[in-house]
Structures are given as C-alpha cells and as structure tokens.
C-alpha cells in the first residue's frame, strides 16, 4: 500500500498546531470548506469540500498537543478507510510536524494528485499559523 508523508517545522507551539488539525473552525482555514466535529477519541467529523465531497471521518488517535488521527469513513473509494494523521513534537515556539496519509489501496493518478494537494494544503496551514494568512478555499491549491 502506498502512503503519503510530509515532515516540516512550524514556528508555533505544538498546542496551536494541534488546534489547527483538530478544531473545525481551524480546519476550515486551511483544508476544508466547512467542517464539524468534536476533538475527542471516537468522535465523528464532517469534512465538506463541496456538494460532491461531503465526507466523514472518525477520530482514531487523540493526544492533545501530540497526536491526532482521522480514519476516513465516507469519501471517494480510494480515500475510504485511509488514515490521516499528525504527530507533533516541539517547544513553546517550534513544532516539528510529521504528517501521514496511510492506507491507500494502490498507487493511482488520484493518489499522485493527493500527494501534491497535501503538500499545498500543509503549506497553507503553515502560513495560517505563522502569519495569520487566510487563503479563500477555492484558491488554496494556487498559492
């Protein structure tokens, strides 16, 4: 099974990065167009990317300030059952992010596109956290 990995630093505390990957209002600033859910183990999140992309995920790992992982439970076929996660290490003003998207069934064109898209979305998250930059949803893959 192919997986996607991205490791990068963000110049903010791990607690702030954790909020960005687990709180719906923050997810909406860098990844989703609209989301809802509660940051706790077993909670269901709604991840809305548009009318054709109304997805769901369950929180599989939850360690505040350290780890957060979703399992995708409703999505396009290739994302179904995959796990999107963040492992965080750091200090008060620097976090090392270890991102993964594991469990892709096979390497396809959609997988290859998702590798690129994750890099772009994670860059938007970094800019949001470090500089307060807000990029409109429809422009996030263009910055």
Tell me the overall shape: globular
Q: How many angstroms does the end-to-end distance come to? A: 30 Å
CATH architecture: 2-Layer Sandwich
| Main β sheet profile | 7 strands, antiparallel
Rg, alpha carbons? 14 Å
Helices and strands: which structural class?
alpha+beta
CATH homologous group name: START domain
Question: What is the number of beta strands?
Answer: 7
Task: Count helical runs.
Answer: 3
Strand order of the largest sheet: 1-7-6-5-4-3-2
List segments where confidence is low: pLDDT < 50 over at least 5 consecutive residues. Answer: none
The share of residues in helices is 25-40%
Keywords:
143 residues; 3 helices; alpha+beta; Alpha-D-Glucose-1,6-Bisphosphate, Chain A, domain 4; 7-stranded antiparallel sheet
Q: How do the helices and strands line up, and which of them pair or pack?
A:
Elements: E1 4-10, H1 14-22, H2 24-30, E2 34-36, E3 44-48, E4 54-63, E5 67-74, E6 83-90, E7 95-102, H3 109-131
Antiparallel strand pairs: 1-7, 2-3, 3-4, 4-5, 5-6, 6-7
Helix pairs in contact: 1-2
């Amino acid at each position: 099974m192919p997986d996607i990995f991205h490791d990068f630093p963000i110049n903010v505390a791990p607690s702030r990065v954790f909020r960005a990957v687990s709180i719906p209002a923050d997810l909406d600033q860098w990844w989703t167009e609209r989301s809802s859910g509660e940051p706790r183990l077993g909670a269901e999140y709604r991840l809305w990317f548009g009318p054709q992309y109304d997805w769901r995920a369950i929180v599989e790992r939850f360690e505040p300030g350290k780890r957060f992982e979703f399992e995708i439970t409703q999505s396009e076929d290739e994302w179904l059952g995959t796990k999107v996660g963040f492992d965080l290490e750091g200090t008060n003003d620097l976090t090392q992010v270890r991102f993964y998207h594991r469990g892709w069934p096979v390497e396809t064109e959609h997988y290859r596109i998702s590798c690129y898209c994750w890099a772009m979305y994670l860059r938007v998250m970094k800019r949001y956290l470090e500089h307060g930059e807000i990029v409109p949803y429809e422009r996030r893959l263009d910055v």
